[in-house]
Amino acid sequence: MDESNPYAPSEAMELDDRRESEPETVAWRDGELLIVRNGAFLPNRCLQCNEPAAGFRLHQTVMRAHPAVYILVLLGGLLFFLFAKTGQLSFAICPLHRRKRMLATLKGWLIGLAGVAFIASAAFLPDNLVGILVIVGVGLIVAGGIVGAFASRVLFPARIDKHFIWLTKVSPAFLATFPDAHEP
User: Fold this and answer.
1) Radius of gyration of the chain from its Cα atoms, rounded to whole angstroms
2) Stronger pLDDT, 1 or 72, i.e. the higher one
3) Fewest Cβ atoms nearer than 10 Å: which of 39, 44, 64, 150?
4) Cα separation of 131 and 133, whole Å?
């Protein structure tokens, strides 16, 4: 008979707790790059300013492809995903950068909704303005998606392989807390 406790924490939660407290090094600095193990849990300090993160943690899947592969987006977005490499990372950001990220996402949504409003208002205006409003509306929707996606980014992967993620645009103070990748 199985004597497992249905109220016990899951093994996944125990694994998360062990990752947090593991003495094993999960990241190194290499100049201005932060090299992180794929799936790592970074310390509870902001990636962008090294301030305490007040317990806020993001779990993200990052994606990176060679810049030439971005041409495939023009040919068909699904082809891009065949050549992109992904990695997972858990990191913290401080309240200030969390607010900036939220505002950038909000700006993207508002620009996109303005585009929808332009398209919807075309139904109530003379026929000679409909085409212009629809074009402007579609442009605003695309611009809102771009603004929301790029302005709210926190992680900037320079390279991803099976085991590691190389991140750029990390705070120098945050980088300084990790051992040098070239030292034994």
Assistant:
1) 22
2) 72
3) 150
4) 6
